[in-house]
Design goal:
727 residues, alpha+beta, Alkaline Phosphatase, subunit A, five-stranded mixed beta sheet, 22 strands, 29% helix
Length: 727
């Protein structure tokens, strides 16, 4: 391999590999915006990856400051010359109803125009040189008593220091060059360079109970997910997407557009052999899309009932279903067990069906690959003249039967992920990576069929992982608190990306509040339906919020009420404050779990693997699609990293046996319970009142024991519709 050794133009560090960027094109534009006018010569200079990331993060923060300035400018009266009240502008620009007015002692940050929740600094107390060097365009005199929140102040200090160092280096280079020391390493000579990168042929993939930290775009280097990452970087990454705490409640919310408390499915996941299902008077998403003329197909998991034929997927709006009715099965044998109420007897049965017919011939095939192949067949056989709704719900990365973490080749798995200490985590990594590969195959197939240009591709996790517990999959929601079953961020803050050429804005991070129940009205609207015909549901049409990056009308999310566990939570004030009341099984999963994936033992993040991925290559065939570059990838990734929210060794240990209140904006890791702080008294009371309202609307859980009549031995050792056709 060619020996690269260059000097970074911004920090003067030696670059000994190909990890650099040539200063040209967009980098020059970014330097100009940041007022870094560098001395140049006829040769192209380069910057190291570290400076590149800092440069783009500084650029994005300045863009936020300038957006605020643009927002304020129309309200400035140049003739009167009087400073304006930023609170009034904030309320007008938000354009939505609030639970309360901004408190008298609260302030709006002059740089990000958000309500200050984490302390602030008066602008008058800040060194004016800092503003002149970084944001000379901001007119602080235009607003009354301007303040800067602590987060923005820290960012301002960090970026100003970085820019000062860059300018000091530039001055040093200029001085040395004027002294005719042009051959010194400090007087940089950069020849034109062709950066040669070889694409990886990587046949690995994963999604059910996948952790926040198990996708590359969230900052971990442990598990490659190039295809899913490519969808997000080319489309939209949803930073504040929330699900339910477990499988059945999430799927009920997804398909009904309602909180699970409306259907009595808010509690524990449904068991095989249990007579429980989505109420038949609730019209579900595939039924809605059938009304619009869509062909509807489900591949993989259902988990919303199978006692009657009518409550299975083909009875609830899917033209076809290839997969399993229950919560999880073996990765190769497609069987699972369910324990009866006596706590002793367990039924075991086979659960792989096409519509209502068992599919024994596939036993022994790896489920992720099988489900992918069936999905590709559906696309191949689809008549492009008809609209298509295809829902692929993988077993990955749930545990299989028992505690199985099934992979096709354990020797290859251990060799590929030898940098991961725990074998179970190595297995999990391979499961996720193989699933990622199937995502690329599906996107590529849509492109081959000339269907991609009119498609919406949505990928999301249904709840947090089980790093530990009775059925651990060893996923990671680091740095968040909690796991699946809890209402902390680690249990309900989901990973989600959406790609479509139909989006008006692409290649950005959406930070608006979105709930899993919103997908029904959002997709129904995108499919051409009239959302007003859906009736009174909890879900909100978020298409324009995502497509145009507009402000959402959603101000709260009921995360859940489980009256059996005495556990509930609500997220209010545009997602800033979360009230948790009670906990799952006395705080069993209330702490911090999972790998950070950021240690030196892990491989570096391979942007070229993302660029070369099947998904990205297919997306780049779209005529108006912008090319995906390493700079874009690294910049977006740096903005998504929430590792700042707590030190790696900071794991405050407490259990929310009563009320806990968290400021998610400043404390997404939920390290500090502020419920007893009088400053938040009004917020606490408002959220308690909201939670009480939802309690009054709750439909009691319909949980039942496994029905002895469901015994699979009565049906060729196969789970079946033991109660007949319909209720």
């Amino acid at each position: 391999m060619e020996n690269f050794e260059k000097t970074c133009r911004l920090c003067l560090n030696i670059i000994s590999d190909t990890s650099f960027k040539i200063i040209q094109g967009i980098i020059i534009e970014v330097l100009d915006v940041l007022l870094l006018k560098l001395s140049t010569n006829k040769n192209k200079s380069v910057i190291c990856n570290g400076c590149s990331i800092k440069l783009f993060v500084a650029f994005n923060f300045k863009a936020t400051c300038m957006d605020t300035e643009d927002c304020i400018f129309p309200y400035i009266n140049s003739e009167m010359g009087a400073p304006i009240d930023l609170k009034e502008i904030y309320l007008k620009e938000r354009g939505k109803e609030h639970f309360r007015n901004i408190l008298e002692d609260e302030r709006i940050c002059r740089l990000c125009m958000q309500v200050v929740t984490c302390g602030f600094t008066w602008v008058r107390e800040v060194d004016v040189d800092m503003f002149l060097k970084y944001t000379p365009e901001v007119n602080f005199n235009s607003t009354k008593e301007p303040v800067i929140c602590n987060i923005c102040f820290d960012l301002l200090n960090t970026h100003t220091s970085f820019l000062k160092n860059c300018l000091d280096v530039n001055e040093k280079i200029t001085s040395m060059c004027e002294d005719k020391a042009a051959e010194s390493p400090s007087c940089i000579k950069c020849e034109d360079v062709e950066i040669k990168s070889e694409g990886n042929d990587d046949d690995r993939t994963p999604l059910d109970k996948t952790g926040w930290n198990d996708f590359g775009f969230h900052g971990s280097n442990q598990i490659p997910t190039p295809n899913i990452d490519a969808l997000g970087y080319n489309g939209v990454i949803l930073d504040k997407f929330y699900t339910q705490q477990t499988c059945t409640p999430s799927r009920a919310a997804l398909l009904t557009g309602n909180y699970p408390i409306r259907s009595g499915l808010q509690g524990i996941p449904l068991q095989a052999g249990e007579n429980r299902y989505v109420p038949l008077n609730m019209t579900v998403l595939p039924e809605r899309l059938q009304e619009l003329g869509y062909r509807t197909h489900l591949v993989g998991k259902w988990h919303l009932g199978h006692a009657y034929e009518k409550v299975t997927p083909v009875g609830r709006g899917f033209d076809t279903h290839f997969g399993y009715w229950s919560g999880f099965i073996g990765y190769f044998d497609y069987t699972l067990g369910a324990q009866l109420a006596d706590g002793v007897t367990t039924y075991f049965g086979y659960d792989l069906h096409y519509n209502l017919t068992a599919q024994y011939q596939f036993k022994g095939q790896y489920s992720t690959e099988l489900f992918s192949n069936k999905s590709l067949e559906i696309i191949d056989n689809h008549d492009e003249k008809e609209p298509l709704f295809l829902m692929v719900s993988h077993l990955a990365a749930h545990t299989g039967r028992g505690t199985e973490l099934g992979v096709p080749n354990i020797t290859k798995t251990n060799e590929t992920y030898d940098y991961i200490e725990l074998e179970e985590r190595r297995r999990y990594a391979d499961i996720v990576n193989i699933m990622d590969d199937t995502v690329g195959q599906i996107v590529n197939k849509l492109a081959e069929k000339d269907m991609l240009q009119n498609s919406i591709i949505l990928f999301f996790s249904d709840n947090g992982p089980m790093t530990t517990g009775s059925v651990p999959n060893h996923g990671s929601s680091w740095p968040f608190r909690g796991l699946k079953f809890t209402l902390f961020e680690g249990g309900v803050r989901g990973s989600a990306v959406l790609y479509s050429p139909l989006l008006e804005k692409r290649g950005y991070i959406n930070r608006e509040l979105i709930h899993i129940s919103d997908w029904l009205p959002t997709l129904y609207h995108a499919a051409g339906g009239n959302v007003s015909e859906l009736g009174d549901i909890d879900g909100i049409n978020q298409w324009d919020v995502i497509s145009k990056n507009l402000t959402t009308t959603r101000t709260e999310i009921l995360l859940n009420i489980d009256e059996f566990e005495n556990q509930s939570a609500i997220l209010g004030y545009e997602g800033q404050y979360k009230l948790v009341n009670g906990t799952y099984q006395d705080g069993l999963y209330d702490q911090y779990y999972g790998d950070s994936g950021r240690g030196s033992e892990n491989p570096s993040y391979d942007t070229q693997q993302i660029i070369n991925s099947l998904a990205n290559q297919a997306i780049q065939t779209i005529s108006n699609q912008s090319p995906l570059t390493s700079d874009v990838i690294l910049n977006m990734r740096s903005l998504l990293d929430v590792s700042w929210c707590r030190d790696a060794n900071s794991t405050p240990n407490f259990v929310c046996s009563g009320f806990c209140l968290f400021d998610i904006y400043s404390d997404p890791c939920e390290t500090t319970n502020v419920v007893n702080d009088t400053k938040y008294e009004n917020i606490l009371q408002n959220l308690q009142a909201k939670l009480s309202e939802f309690y009054e609307q709750l439909v009691p859980q319909t949980n039942k024991a496994v029905d002895p009549n469901s015994d699979p031995s009565k049906s060729n050792d196969t789970w079946w519709n033991w109660l007949g056709t319909e209720p």
